[in-house]
User: Fold Rhamnogalacturonan lyase family 11 C-terminal domain-containing protein from Paenibacillus antri.
Amino acid sequence: MAQAEAVLLKTIDIRRAGLRNKLLLGDLDGDGRMEIVMVQPDGGIDDRYVPHQVQCLTAFDLDGRLLWQVGTPDPDCGGPGSDYPAQIYDIDGDGRNEVACVMNKRFLVLDGRTGETKRSFDLPGPHAHDCIVIANLTGGPQARDVILKDRYRTLWALDRDFRLLWKHEGNPGHYPWVYDFDGDGRDEVMAGYDLLDHDGTKLWSARDLDDHADCIWVGDVDGDPRGEEEIVIGGSVTVMYDRRGRELWRYDGSIESQHVALGKFRDDVPGLQVAGLDRIRRGDTGGRWTESGKDGMFLLDSQGRELWKEDRRTSGWLTIVETLRHWDDGPLDYILAYRRGGGVYPTLYDGHMNAVASFPVDGYAAHADLIGSGREQVLIYDASTVSIFGSRASELIPARPGVPLPQPKRLYSSTLYPGGEYR
Ligand SMILES: [Ca+2]
Ligand SMILES: [Ca+2]
Ligand SMILES: [Ca+2]
Ligand SMILES: [Ca+2]
Assistant:
């Protein structure tokens, strides 16, 4: 397949949001088209130990209008060494999205249309703001409970009125993934290497793994007749478990596996495939960050066998890989790789490691079906500009004007450590 350049649909000037923002997506005003919220983290903390709070939130529509701003951009803000506690989700269940965030040591629920505070709560602990996980722990018709954590030790589960349901101490990993494995209407919580029941009881722990879980994915990887989900954990190695905690395979052909991402990238092998990223040589030897490290993407089949591994000739070791679905009319998913370094711009790869589309700007990436068209667009952004790309031209007009877009779980579970589920 020949490599094509993605079609540039729009650019948006985001300089008024300040530096080092993370981009969130969601339909803030219910008009059938998503908006952008830029999230700036606070500075003055060491995010190896102390989690970020939010310094400033700035909402833009896709025509580049600034809709609202809460907080003030700070030139001395922090950076992406850990997550920023903010999500877009209809957390009060009224059919419109809110923005949930932690600012000034309070958990805030902001009206998506205006940024005004609808509700605010005390935190359950002074460092309970490493990230926000929205879950259904209490069994209502939709997820309205919240899990908060500190950097490396404690989880707090809270109901919709922020009453403490339970607390868990352990090694919760970067971003716990919640999923209702047993179908009782309440989410279990994969917190690092522990699977917790919805009431916080530990069901099982993954064994013989070092360090911490960088990324967790859930999906029916092996395509068994009952369609049972497996759990794939990317940490020091990449391991797959069944939902009862039995280890199915482990891929140790990597030096330091980082992100993994499930997808149907190939139609010539059964089940799902696991895309991943190996840090072959870190570029921060001696505590100093350099670009001289080296990473490489890899792809595993549903049994954990390596299908290929990239032999990278450029320098760069901080690549992020994500699954991109519904980019074009084809039946297969693609691997979106960005933050590659070494002059390599964000690129979309197929399951044979062919580049199928390239993006002619560098930066961080986000992706979503912005207008409910059934296709996803890719947004690449830096400190000044968001560039929106599609596989073909589009005016980005809502497919169903006035009908609020549902907020996909992937978008309300935004994290630097992209976990996910494949359904
Ligand atoms: Ca909208
Ligand atoms: Ca709402
Ligand atoms: Ca359950
Ligand atoms: Ca399965």
Q: What stands out?
A: Helices lie at 409-412. Residues 27-29, 31, 33-35 surround calcium ion (ligand 1) (CB under 6 Å).
